[in-house]
Target: TetR family transcriptional regulator
Amino acid sequence: MSERVVPEDSRQRRRPTKQGAVLSEQLIVETALRLVAQHGADALSVRRLGAALGADPSALYRYFRNTDALLLAIADELIGRAQDGWRATGDWRTDLRSMGLRIHAIYVAHPQAAVLGAYRTTGRPHETRAVERILGILRSAGFPDALAVRIYHAFVDQALAFAAQDAAAKALPPAAREGDEQVWQSVYGRLSPDTHPNIAATFPLLAADMRDSGYPFALDLTLGAAAALLSQEAPRA
Amino acid sequence: MSERVVPEDSRQRRRPTKQGAVLSEQLIVETALRLVAQHGADALSVRRLGAALGADPSALYRYFRNTDALLLAIADELIGRAQDGWRATGDWRTDLRSMGLRIHAIYVAHPQAAVLGAYRTTGRPHETRAVERILGILRSAGFPDALAVRIYHAFVDQALAFAAQDAAAKALPPAAREGDEQVWQSVYGRLSPDTHPNIAATFPLLAADMRDSGYPFALDLTLGAAAALLSQEAPRA
DNA sequence: GTTTACACGTCAATGGTGTTGACGTAAGGT
DNA sequence: ACCTTACGTCAACACCATTGACGTGTAAAC
Model:
């Protein structure tokens, strides 16, 4: 067996499957995303994907070395979609903020797929384009390279980590998700001020705040701290 | 079958397994954590856990309804361990920092338990204790309640999100993990300065920085921003 | 001390998973 | 029109979580 995967570029012989489908990397990725969107992350198996494509499951191995390679392709597709139509304004803080919120939004919009790929390094074109852009924003804002890199790292990991977390919560089976939300009322709402004074004192605020994602505020904190570092570097722009 | 799980409290008949082990909820959780610690991410399966305990795999279903219940029990144990021995110094920034790093560290040390448990709200005692403590640190530092709650939210979600992300990366099958690390050399190291000037210019810094978790720096940025907000609130302490 | 009930460990089976080697056919280059 | 070989298919392997049936050892009841 060894090398059964042919790079997408140099593919010439596309033979229709028994059921008439003509396979391609793109078609497989799109079908996988659709499968996940409709039937949840658990629905993504080689066998089911093969069935959805109208092909033998093992045909996928002509396009991806293994399921991990397929996963990376899916993850990269999401990164690409997050950037589609994004435009720089020239103000670094505005640009980073919109980029972060976009990444977060697209992952949360595809919860099941996000859970699978949010913590991977794909090295694929969409990903490298995003890295290049974010680094560019920071460097042209005046951050020296060493600092730009550290902030890039914190920024990207923060965006992906929150995205994955919020996506995961959204992708939970309905029963489990409702259970987790109930806990705020049934447990935290009933803790005694004697044993848990701080929770009791802030409970209404807490219950309200925890309903939404903590990301936007966390992002603003990070950007604020970065701005402070920048003004230390170049006290006068 | 239906209800084969008996609550741990009301258990009376403990029959030794063929290999002489006497099972208990506690023993199973501890063995699972040991299995993960010693043999890595892939080692945690019902079959292998059964083998490690010296029992038939299906015996576990007398103690946990399914593997998800088992993993939640493990996650709860982790929250407890993260706080074991933690002491407040009285300096809010130091205390939050050590709490965040502890949470992160304990989750990363037990990757797949973290992946499944980091985005759940359990409402169990270990969890409420942690919430109470963190809120207490912020409120006694002088943050007004509304702000304390928002910062609490950002802080906790960030700690858990990064923890889950780094844990997930660590829980990857060795092949995939090495692949992801290799990508920095094989892809990002070879991008042309023409198409990717910012990556090319900072590559050595980038490759070095991305090897470690972005959390400690992200945490410091967040705490720095919080400190700035505090000094706005109470310009003079 | 003996009997009895049933908790719980074991066995076997089900239906799922990713992955691979062998094989034949049809597509493309010549 | 012929060859080569890419690629879709088939069958098999080894693993996974989960469950119903079964019998035995334990602990309570007498």
Chain B touches chain A through 65 residues (CB under 8 Å). The radius of gyration of chain B is 22 Å. Chain B is about 65% helix and 0% strand.
